[in-house]
Design goal:
Number of strands: 18
Number of domains: 2
CATH class of the largest domain: Alpha Beta
CATH architecture of the largest domain: 3-Layer(aba) Sandwich
Strand content: 25-35%
Radius of gyration: 21 Å
Number of helices: 12
CATH superfamily of the largest domain: NAD(P)-binding Rossmann-like Domain
């Protein structure tokens, strides 16, 4: 699809890996059908992942009349790499369109800044960046230019999470006191591209996936984290690189509550669930206890297949995150909070643009800034202004894991900083 509906967002996705295949591209394809998204370009380090996306039978069946521009071209040798190609593409994009950042954690900052420097809205996979100072710089630059930066913490769009947030903030649960979260991804991740970048100096399971549940606890309660202790368990990837393959963390919140967080790359590939993930928060009121419990692995649906196309013959199925299903139109459409999250960010970027229609450049900038500030205050979309606690937690976690779990403290005054506890 090469035509562009007036007012839609021409989009560049930087990164062609798993999350682009599973969630981002299907969501954007459907939004393209609806006229919200214009032409889509996907840029990767080399042609291999782009060829895999272009030739994917499931995507072809779901979106039979749609395609993307691949750069480098899929005809290029997969051995030829283009580490700076994304800069050239972003520079050529007309202002106030959309750049989607879907690269490994440590590369988020340069891609986001390149997008902002060329006046583009940004949708990035979590986490935003790895240090608070980087998040603050991005917030300042985006606000100065009237651009939306949103972090795709899709668990915020799970209806269970939205319901819990509303009930907690209306006082129905009292105060969060103690809880546990876990998210363990499949063992086969170790055989993927993870083994090339998910090394000790770059990331760990808490930073990569534990941040989902830290953000969710903050999203539900509004409480700020004040201390993090994280232990990592090292292991070798098949290519010999060393990484933290497991982690166990403890996050202390400003009211004294404690959340333990267990993460790893090791859930059995043949087990029913695609991963193991859940959140349990024990709360208390006046002489009474309460609880928020979300089982995010098993949503009450299980399938037994006659084949192994799903990786195993028996699977727990979550229709709530991301599924491609029949609809009234051609092909299939995405459903679930994975789609809802991307749709929400795209709609917000479109709204920011629309509010400035017909205004002078100066008045248009002021209006866009005002709308973004409203989005920040509402707190449903994760933005640098309203979700910077995540960068503080990650910075503290990285400080702690390198010192075998020595606690790191987050101070908010006079300015947010992270330090090791004395």
């Amino acid at each position: 699809m090469s035509c562009q509906t007036p007012g839609s967002l021409e989009t560049i996705i930087v990164g062609g890996g798993m999350i682009t295949h599973d969630q981002i591209l299907p969501s954007l394809y459907h939004l393209q059908r609806l006229g919200r998204i214009g032409p889509i370009t996907i840029c990767a380090l080399n042609s291999a992942p782009l060829r895999a996306l272009a030739e994917d039978k499931r995507l072809q069946a779901a979106f039979p009349d749609q395609s993307f521009r691949a750069l480098p071209a899929i005809s290029e040798s997969p051995n030829k790499v283009y580490p700076e190609l994304y800069r050239e593409l972003i520079a050529g994009l007309p202002p106030h369109n959309l750049v989607v950042v879907a690269v490994p954690d440590q590369f988020h900052e340069p891609v986001i800044k390149a997008a902002l420097e060329h006046d583009q809205h940004v949708l990035t996979v979590k986490p935003l960046v790895l240090k608070y100072a980087q998040a603050a710089e991005i917030e300042t630059l985006a606000h100065r230019k009237g651009l939306l930066v949103a972090v795709e913490y899709h668990k915020r769009f799970d209806r269970r999470s939205l319901d819990a947030r509303g009930l907690y903030r209306s006082g129905r649960f009292g105060q969060f006191r103690c809880g546990e979260a876990k998210l363990v991804e499949p063992y086969y991740y170790r055989h993927s591209n993870f083994q090339n970048w998910f090394t000790k100096e770059n990331s760990d399971p808490f930073t990569y996936i534990g941040c989902h549940y830290v953000d969710l606890a903050y999203f539900i309660t509004g409480l700020r984290p004040v201390e993090v202790a994280l232990r990592g368990i090292e292991g070798k990837f098949p290519n010999g690189n060393v990484g933290y393959l497991w982690s166990a963390g403890q996050v202390v919140w400003e009211n004294g509550a404690v959340l333990s967080v267990v993460n790893g790359l090791g859930y059995p590939d043949e087990a029913p669930g695609m991963n193991d993930q859940a959140l349990c928060m024990f709360c208390e009121g006046d002489d009474v206890g309460s609880i928020i419990r979300h089982d995010d692995q098993f949503r009450g649906v299980s399938h037994g297949y006659i084949d192994h196309l799903a990786g195993a013959a028996f699977r727990f199925v979550s229709p709530d995150y991301m599924r491609l299903v029949p609809w009234q139109g051609g092909g299939l459409r995405p459903i679930g909070y994975g789609y809802d999250s991307i749709e929400g960010i795209v709609e917000a970027a479109l709204h920011v643009n629309k509010t400035a229609d017909g205004l002078s450049p100066q008045d248009g900038l002021a209006r866009r800034q005002q709308v973004i500030e409203e989005i920040d205050r509402r707190g449903l979309l994760a933005t640098p202004a309203n979700s910077f606690i995540n960068e503080l937690v990650i910075e503290a976690a990285r400080l702690s894991i390198a010192r075998n779990g020595h606690p790191a403290v987050i101070d908010y005054q006079p300015a947010p900083t992270v330090r090791l506890r004395d």
